[in-house]
Amino acid sequence: MDAVGPPLRSLPQSTALLGQRRQWHSNAHSGRCTALDPRICLVAVAGCAAVCRAPQHSARRAVSALVVGGTGRVGGSTARWLQRLAEETKLELEVAVGGRNKETWHRLRDRCPEAAQWSFVEVDHRDRKSVKEAMALQQWDVVVHTAGPFQGVTEPNILKEALELGVPYVDVCDDTELCKTAKSLAKSSVPAIVSAGIWPGVSALMVREAYERLGSIEDLEMSFYTAGTGGAGPTIVSATFLLLAEPPLNYQAGQEVRAEPWGQRRLVDFGPGVGQQPVHLLDEPEVYTCHEYLGIPNISSSFGTAPDIWNWMFAAARVLPRSVLANRGLMQQVSTFSMPIITAVDQFVGSINAMHIKATGPADASGRRSVATLRVAHQDLEDCVGLATAAFAFELLEKRVKPGVWFPVEMDAASRSSIFRRVQHGSILWDL
């Protein structure tokens, strides 16, 4: 900090001068004013001026973030990016990761050097009492829920606890029905963002960007691609199996249509570095949110992976009874059991994540229709979903989101721009 006048160390440090300083200190506290060496007055004035001129944030307490599911792949990536963004913005941030046991915490510390700076909170996101206890440990400035899969979950318990305690909240929920339930809790004194992350999340911001450019959207095709597991571990595999039990929501002429999961295979050009990839219909909450809040009458969402044999494997899995595919515990076991093979294949196919948004506007007077195509790709799904989730959380930490429960598609232009700027980190294609 800058000081006014000569620095203290430039003045004579005699015993008499030190005595005068002590006398000035004593007089100041007793309310008396006596004649002093002018140099002492100068030091006093300089000190007061320096204190007055010091930045007010220097005494501000550190803000805190709790990442529930933080010992997992997506949660660990989110915690890492929270720390990195805090360093970029000079924000003093204390990160805590929540997990079911210390074993997963120790594994995270082994693979993530940054974790040495974080603290661990034992919490089972499936247990309401455990969640309540973790949330009550201190006054968190934001809680981020990354503990998937979200399919088959009927109540947003962590969101409920956050709103009850007045803690801003972000999640990466990718289940349509659970998102609807969360939105019904809209009366809140703090902000909450539901269905953040890369997709859903940033993909909804891309749709909103296209909407603003075109004025309105008549037809919307959202397509997503991840090579292998994208480095995100067994959760993405089990979530895909669980989604096969849910007929994907589409809209045609404004009417809700349920299609066959993993049907209508087609090729989509995801751009340089990714190329054309096959995608298939799969349920995605932004079909609902973009129809509900932007009034888009025709919407579909599709997903594909690599190698293509995995696509055919998911297609074959559709013959299994819905009760089997919807069994969370069983699908998690199948995914975990398959991981050695899947991980070996991942070494060859990489972990690229890509998004393709094609929005078509209404016909003009001459019958022509404008089209907006937006494409974004990152080298690694695990990394970019953590980055995107942290970017949404920072909108809350920087207090740019008003109280209420919001979907990303509802966020304003300033937040959209801020999140885009941060998520561009490490992208291999940024075609907006």
From TrEMBL:
Residues 66-186 form the Saccharopine dehydrogenase NADP binding domain. InterPro entries: NAD(P)-bd_dom_sf (IPR036291), Sacchrp_dh_NADP-bd (IPR005097). Pfam families: Sacchrp_dh_NADP (PF03435). This is Saccharopine dehydrogenase NADP binding domain-containing protein.
